[in-house]
Amino acid sequence: MTGLGWQGFAKLVFAQGDALRDGKAERATKPLIIQAQAPLKVQRSFYPEGPEVCHTTILHTAGGMVGGDRLSIDIQAQANTKVLLTTAAASKIYGSYGQSQVYPQGQLAQQQIQIKLEAGAYLEWLPQEMIVFDGAIYRQDLRVDLAPTACWLGWEITRFGRTARGERFLSGEWRSQTEVWQQGHPVWIDRQSLNGGTAMLDSPHGLAGQPVVASLIWLGQAVDQAQIDQARQLWLASSPQGEAGVTELELGLLCRYRGPSSQEAQQWFVQVWRILRQVYWQRSVVLPRVWPL
After folding, report:
1. Beta strands in the chain (DSSP E)
2. 125, 152 in Cβ contact below 8 A?
């Protein structure tokens, strides 16, 4: 750890190989390269769905980020691989410290995620929720490069303030930028930001007094109206406390959530994930073993 904070990284490359199952050779997705520097660590991969799908978990050993931390995650899925990536626990972004010229209230904590999917690859990026403490200054940049016929499913679930303690996000700054590109053309660009203590916390155009916002995005294949309708019906059937919406994209689907419960958002996202898996992959969902669900 330097004076600036943790400078951690993880690099993961997945490739196809052969595996024996019941005496027969099958195609398998295997970690080809796993590199990590503290505070990030990559746990041993598991295969609860068989050798074709690799489940891998990224662990933050320091328990959370503070001002000055810089984390970088580089993920590559080679042709025809199938990967599910998640995190071992909720991510915590603590209050910042140490003034800078750019951020006079404290230093920036930053995470950069690069994902590259080759032809026929399918990757699910499903981290557990992120808790942004009051006073945190945080930025995340996530970029996905999709080859033709590759598909990506990702979600982001963010809680502002430790609401169990009555805390609100009254100071600090949060920014999240997601970009998905295919053959040099933008497929999806999403920029979100929130300054603590501003009117956006209670505005109907912002959080509307709610502590949790979440997004799920599926990209790589066009969806049918039937899947849009199913996602909406699943939300309405859950007796929701929050608000949600489903939008058809040119090459996928977008779900948004705003409400009081990260668990409510995740449970709905899992239901939508089940639909997409079954329709476009003919495979059932197997939840990661580290999830508390």
Report:
1. 7-21, 24-37, 40-42, 53-60, 70-77, 82-87, 91-93, 109-117, 122-125, 130-132, 137-146, 151-160, 173-182, 185-195, 212-219, 243-249, 252-259
2. yes
For the chain, how long is the longest CA-to-CA vector? 63
- What does the angle CA 128 – CA 134 – CA 138 come to, to the nearest 5 degrees? 60
Other Cβ atoms closer than 10 A to 149: 15
What span, in angstroms and rounded, lies between the C-alpha atoms of 281 and 292?
25
pLDDT tens per residue across span 80-117: 999 999 999 999 999 886 555 555 567 899 999 999 99
Q: Are 289 and 48 in contact (CB under 8 A)?
A: yes
In the structure encoding, which two tokens stand for residue 232, read together? 């909406």
Say if CB 55 and CB 29 are below 8 A apart: no
Residue 42 near residue 32, CB atoms below 8 Å: no
**Is this model's pTM higher than 0.90 or not?**
yes
- Other Cβ atoms within 10 Å of 211 Cβ, number: 22
HEC per residue, 177-203: EEEEEECCEEEEEEEEEEECCCHHHCC
